[in-house]
Design goal:
Shape: rod-shaped
Helix content: over 70%
Number of strands: 0
Radius of gyration: 36 Å
Oligomer: single chain
Largest sheet: none
Strand content: under 5%
Structural class: mainly alpha
Length: about 110
Amino acid sequence: MGIKELRQKKWFSLLTNIYILVATVFVIWMLFFDTNSLLIHLELKKEINKLEKQQEFLKQEIAKDKQILEKLSDPDELEKFAREKYYLKKKNEEIYLIEYEDSLHVKNEE
C-alpha cells in the first residue's frame, strides 16, 4: 500500500484531520487563552522592562542622595544648605532676598 492509497481511505483522512484539528486547537489555546499564554508573557516582559528601568533610575537617585547626605554631614555644608534652600537664619540676623525679574513666576493678567 502506498501513501496515496492510504489518503484515499476514509479512516486515514479522518484520523489525520482530527489530529490536525486537535493540534490547532491546542496551539490556539496555548497562544491566547491559557494562563501562561504568549500574550500574557509579552505583557509581563514589558512590565519587567519598565520595572528594570525604574529600578535603574531609583538606584541613580539613591546614589545622588547618598552624595548629598555625605556632603551634609559637614556642619558648614549643612548650614549653607539650610540657608540657601529653606532661608534659615541665625539669631539677630536679617536676610535680604534679591529676586530678578526673569527668575520670578509672574502671571500674565490681561
